[in-house]
Each structure stands twice: as structure tokens, then as C-alpha cells.
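Question thread 4412

I'm putting together a teaching handout and wanted feedback from people who do this every day. The idea is simple: show students a protein as raw sequence, then show them the C-alpha cells that encode its fold, then repeat with a second protein so they can compare. Below is the first pair exactly as I plan to print it.
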Amino acid sequence: MIWKFVLSTFLTILISTSVAFAKEDEMTCATCHPDIIEKPHLHRPAKLENCKACHIPTTVRPKVSKFPSDHPMVRPNLGDDPKKVCLQCHTKFASKFSSKKNVHSAIEAEGCLGCHNPHGSDVPKLLKITTVESKLCVSCHTDKEAWKTDSKIKEHKIIHQKKGCLSCHDPHSSNLPALLLKQGRGLCLDCHKQGVKTEDGRTLKSFTQELAKNRTIHSPVDGEEDCTTCHMPHASAIRKLLKDEFGENYDEFSEKKFALCFTCHSVDLVTAAKTSDATGFRNGDVNLHNFHIIATPKNRGCGTCHEIHSSKNPTLIKDHMPYKDYKLPQTYKKMPEGGSCVTACHGLKVYDRKKPFANSKGR
């Protein structure tokens, strides 16, 4: 009977030990790190519990309670490049980083983990924080967060839309400065090619259509510069995201009120009563900008006669004069050494830079 008892005990110990080892062998990283697979958006290796894709498997059996102090180790021989482990699988980004002139400084400093979680996330693309309201970007670019605390500052509407900063910037790399997606006005026209609704209910016109139908385009819009010559791309305390003050169509003139224009144009364009070179809009040496704005003050601004972006007429002359809710007709004709103008304010007036024209006084 004793041998039966001994045999029974031996078999019990053997079976229980086998089961224990079986359970130990079934242990995975998620056994101790369950939070890894509890997120709604999982990195594929984490979802498959293939931790070996990024980590060296420990040689210590799971039954050992104390793991090495350096557990888990990232794969070795990666040099000083913190993104190298990610690029073993994400090869298309390796190609981008090597072929583009500019790589996001966060990637160079911290690798991909500056913005992404390696295992799982509550938001798509394994991002640490949502890009809505540009929250992820301002976690590093803290100077931009100040916009939200100053009620005078109005942010570019696109920042609050789904893609936020990524509407204009590549988060990884680009051949352009500031990681821009496109060069010049082409980037702005990606959105402004159609009417854009503003917060106050207005609809901005399609600038693609405007530029296509007009023959004269303001040089900052048409040249090597772009819309940011006059506009702030992110936020501004001045209306229409302008960089500096641009007075109303009918506004008492001062250099400060029209400071935006004088970032490119000399103030002598307006202030010099007589000139031979400050402006082409002169009758002999009489500065007709000065005549209209200062000598006979009626609170006219630059926008009374000139379009801002483009015009059908030379020198950006409008084909109408805005006055309150009215659009009053204005006809301008360019001549070799001057031009002529008929408006709702006055009849035909002619100017000539070489041979001053004697216009009748009054309207």
C-alpha cells in the first residue's frame, strides 16, 4: 500500500509541476504590462504581442521574480540615432529623412517617441495628444499657446480644424523651410481657392478665381514672396491676420495707420508734396497721392482707389470706389507718361509726368 501512496504522490507532483511550467510558458509581456494592449489604437507589434520586434527578449525565465535592472532593453547597435529602431520597419520614413533637407527637430532630438507612443494611444496614429486645436504641437511650441490667453489675438481658422497645423506643415520632414507642404501662395490657395466662411458670417472670395481673371497682381502675391509678406500665418491682433496696421478705406491718414503699406513702400509716396521719383502718380512734380490724401483731406485710405491683391487695371486701380454700402464707378486709363481718371468724385482728370496737364478746377 505504501508504494501506491508514493506513486500517487509522485504523479500528483509531476502533473502539478507540468501545469505550472505550462502556465509560465504561456506568460507574455502583457501578463505584467496589461496597459500595453488596453488602448483603442495599438501599434501592430503590441497588438500581436510581438514585443521582440522592438525589444530584446530576456533570457531569464518568467518564474524568476527579479528581472534585470535594464529590462527591457532596446535592440542594440542603434548608435546615437533615437529613431533608428522605428525605421527598421517604417522604411518609407527612413527614405524621407535621408532625402529631405529639413527634418523636424523633435525627431532629431527625441526620435519618434517625442510625438508617438510606441505601444498604444487613445488617439489615432499613436499620437501622445490629439492634434485637434493643435494641442500636440503647442505642447512643445509653447509660444503659440499664448494666443489662446489673449482675447485680442485672433487665430487662423484652420488651426481649429481637424488637421490643425498639419494643414500647412509636414510633421516629419520637408525640403521647404518651417516644414511647409508647399512653397509660396500655392499653400494658401489650397484652401482659399474657394470661398471660406469666417466666424462673423462673411464669405471670403476665391483668390484662385480672382488672380486668374485679373491681369495686374500685387507683387508680393505674384513674386518670390508670398501671402505672409502681409499676413501672419498663425495669429494676429490685427484684423484679417495682418502683420501691421492697414487703415479703413476712409480713414484719416497717418503713417502708423497704414504702416503695413510702408513696410515696402516709402512714406514719401504720400507725404512728399512734390517729387520726381517717390511715385509715378504725379502731374509734373506734383505728387497726386499727397494731393488726394493730405492736401485735400477727405480721409481717403490706400484701399479707396487700389485693390490689395489684384486688379483688371494697371497699378491695382479699382474699377469702382467703395463708399459706405455703395460701389461708385471709377474708370482709369494708363498713358505712356501718366494716365486719366473719371470717378464719381470728379470728371475727367489727366496727369502727365513730363508735361503737366492743366486740369479744370473743382469736380
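The second pair follows. I'd like the answer to focus on this one:
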Amino acid sequence: MTLVTPTTTLLTAPKVLLDTLHLAYAAQALPNWLERASSEELGYSEFLVGVLEEEIAARASAQTEKRLRQAGFPYAATIEQFDFRFRPELKRQVVLRYLDPTFVEQASTLTLVGPPGLGKTMLAICIATKLVQLGYTARFVTAQDLAGQLTRAITPLGRQRILRPLLACDVLVLDELGYIPTESSFGPALYEVIASRYERRPTIITSNKSLSDWSAITRDVSLAAAIIDRLMHHGQMFYLKGPSWRIKGHTTEEGTTAQPEASA
């Protein structure tokens, strides 16, 4: 038996029922599916599955968009936009491993080190975005913003309110570590974040400082060593080098292509 074209009354009743069941996306898709059922002579089961699949797909999309907003990425970026030809030191097949649920399940870490303009932040966002699309939660924060929030936190409770989302999210991106000097209180907070996530949840860090210089960030050699030890135990570090993304393709006043600055 196939469905026939409904009257306005027949259309209204199912939509009311779907709305009552909080199936808003299915209710929105219902008219198109009724027309399709009539023109293609769909069976009842095929029609019902189609309408409910619309609800499931729309809910999944809405949840992904919500997680992306909560992540706080400064801009949108996907791995398809990352030009691996411009960063030959990054092997595409190696990087793609971090776009897999295994990265989250194994609570691995990824540290990207190099001068500004090499695409460290973009790559971190690309990886975290893919994991959000796979259903995980993420948070993005720069070291400067985190340090500023901690400085303004007057009480231990206020401090924990700042750190709690960073500890609870599935994937944490800590960006620009070492770019700007921080207060002495930042080192212990950074250690708490890394130690609390260690072997529990993955962390991605970008920094312009070599690991040997991280004691200047934490203002404590032992603290820096403890942080690095945890990051490297189940993680990997990439040193990026080469020309800057930001001057890629730019031209000089004479009209010739500008030569990218060599990294330090």
C-alpha cells in the first residue's frame, strides 16, 4: 500500500503530533516527504524511516554546531584547507592520525613548536574541529587569555571556575604558549591543567618556544620539566619551520613575489 496526497487537515494532524513529541525537524520535513511519498509511491515504512532520519540528521548537525560554538575557535578551519605542500616537515599521513577517535581514546598530546606564522594554530583548530564533528567536545584558549582570567580570579573558587571547562572538555587547545610573559601564578595553573588531563583527555599545545625554554614560561625549572614529561609520555611534538603562511603569495611594491622570511 502507498501513501496518497494528503489534504490540509491530514497534513496538520501529523505535524501537531510531531511537534508534541518535540520532533521539530521531522515536522519541518514532513510536507516534502508527503509529496515525495505520493509522487514516488513510497511505502509506509520507507516514508516513516525517511522522516525520522531527517530528524536524526538535523539534530546531529545542530549538536555539532553547538559544540563548535562552545569550543570558542577564533575562526573556522578544516583539514582540507591545510596546505601540506607548504609545510613538508609535517607528513600528511602522520597528522591524519590525530583526526581519529583514537587520539581522544588514548588521551594523547600534540605539541606544535615554531616561530609565528607557520600554521600551528590553524592545524590545531583543524584537528580539534574534526574531533568536534566526530562528537567530542573541545575548548580553545590562548595562554594570554588564560593568564588574564587567572589574574582576575580573586578567590580559589573563581580560579576553579576558569579551569573547570578546560579540564572537563574532551579536547583542549592551548594556543600561543610563551608568546607573552605571564604572572608567576600561571605556571602552577598550567601544571594543574596538564597534570589533570594527563592520561585522561588529549591536549594540543602551540608554542613559539622550544621545550628547553619553557622554564621561562612557568618561572620554575622543575615545574616546566614536570609539564613536559607528561606531554611527551603519551604524545608527540613537531618543530615547524620554513616560510610564513601570512606572506605566502604576497607581492612587493615592484610587483615580484615576496620571498618568505626564514624561520629562526
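Top answer:
Good format. For the second protein you could add a caption like this: The domain at 72-247 is CATH 3.40.50.300 (Rossmann fold). Strands lie at 109-113, 138-142, 171-177, 203-207, 235-239.
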